[in-house]
Design a protein that fits this description.
This protein is mainly alpha-helical. It is built from 15 helices and two strands. The protein has two domains: about 270 residues, no CATH class; about 110 residues. Helices cover about 65% and strands about 0% of the residues. The two termini are about 20 Å apart.
Length: about 400
């Protein structure tokens, strides 16, 4: 995994900054003015919901599962509709989106990963980089496409057309079509304005939720299939409609499902399955249950081995801390050094805590069947507490550096 906090000559991309930051702020301000002037009714709420989930579905079905991963095939009519809708999300041309996403999966958390949260040691910097920083300080919407993307999608006439006229299509989908939709319902200027603002602000919010897949789901979540940074976050379903099952996706990237189990809410897989039922989708990629179970078993074993290594280190470190605390007490007594009563008690407490932690870590090592990342993190947290206390008591622990 890469980590670096070196000073970089990052240059802000004004076009991307305008699209991702300035334009949404303008929309938010105008929407607030609209609410004060006209009020907000069920009509505006409906526009918002349709705008949000329409953008979400076009990203999940189009940019992600159809083009970036070739999880299924569809006809040119459906593909053309998805090309229009996805351009309206202002996330760049589909060819560029697919190229960046392919790099992310091929080089996850390595130097070539365009939006790895591991780029910086600071978790805050890493989160911000993965969320939007990589775009704000990147090369912009038109970049060099990966060879894999060109081989798979380079001859797709719809995607080549979308890339050539991307900004014209994006402008039409954001500035022209929404007012037309709003006017069609209310038949007046207010309706047109409502369509522009509420579909627009919904699209901007959904854009941020898509970015959360790169940032939030690479910081938290369960990891039953793959022991990388990607995690499954069930409660993000309401915002992502299935893209929240990110751990499974990194384990089986080409599967048309992100949530493979029947009870896992994944609207995108249901829509793709529905398209298949109506003859509008073919060649759906489904990972076999045998392979899934094998991957889960391997991931679990990998966690156990990792935790066993951590527990072994924790046991040794705890013993060193306990020994150092004991030597400090004996030295003080032999040299007639008078330790303050409170300081004496704290060193004694440190020794007892270290012995207790070492004993528990040793016992946990014999219980491989119950080991988990949670247990490992809990013991590591206790060790860090011991180390901080030892430092406060001015107890040198040079041997810990060699563990």
């Amino acid at each position: 995994m890469m980590h670096k906090d070196t000073q970089e000559n990052l240059k802000l991309n004004p076009l991307v900054f305008s699209v991702l930051i300035i334009y949404p702020i303008i929309l938010l301000g105008l929407t607030a003015w609209y609410g004060i002037t006209y009020g907000i009714s069920s009509f505006e709420i409906l526009l918002f919901v349709v705008g949000y989930y329409g953008a979400n579905i076009s990203v999940g079905l189009g940019l992600h599962r159809l083009w970036a991963h070739n999880s299924y095939k569809t006809n040119k009519v459906v593909e053309f509709i998805l090309a229009l809708l996805s351009a309206g999300t202002l996330q760049g041309p589909a060819l560029v989106w697919a190229s960046d996403h392919h790099k992310h999966h091929t080089f996850t958390d390595e130097e070539e990963d365009p939006h790895s949260p591991m780029k910086y040691k600071s978790r805050v910097k890493g989160f911000l980089w993965a969320h939007m920083g990589w775009m704000l300080y990147g090369q912009g919407p038109i970049t060099i496409l990966s060879k894999v993307t060109m081989v798979k999608l380079g001859r797709n006439s719809i995607l080549r057309w979308q890339m050539k006229y991307y900004w014209e299509i994006a402008a039409f989908m954001n500035v022209v079509l929404p007012p037309i939709v709003g006017f069609a319902f209310l038949h007046n200027v207010q309706g047109a304005l409502a369509g522009y603002l509420f579909i627009g602000i919904a699209r901007a919010l959904q854009q941020q939720m898509t970015f959360c897949v790169n940032s939030l789901t690479h910081f938290v979540g369960s990891k039953p299939y793959y022991n990388g940074t990607a995690g499954d976050i069930w409660w993000m379903f309401i915002f992502l409609l299935g893209e929240n099952w990110h751990n499974f996706h990194h384990a089986f990237a080409s599967d048309y499902r992100n949530g493979p189990k029947w009870y896992q809410c994944d609207v995108h897989k249901w829509l793709i399955a529905a398209l298949e039922k109506f003859g509008l989708a073919t060649d759906l990629v489904r990972t076999s249950e045998v392979r899934i179970q094998a991957k889960m078993a391997a991931a679990k074993q990998e966690v156990i081995e990792h935790v066993r290594t951590d527990l072994s280190i924790i046991e040794q470190a705890a013993q060193i801390i306990a020994k150092a605390a004991n030597e400090r007490l004996q030295t003080a007594e032999k040299s007639a050094e008078l330790l303050a009563h409170k300081l004496h008690d704290k060193i004694l407490e440190l020794r007892i805590m270290a012995l207790h932690l070492g004993k528990n870590a040793k016992e946990a090592l014999t219980s491989a069947e119950v080991l988990s990342q949670k247990i490992g993190k809990n013991y590591m947290k206790q060790l860090r507490k011991l180390e901080r206390l030892a430092q406060q008591l001015n107890i040198a622990l040079p041997k810990l550096q060699n563990l």
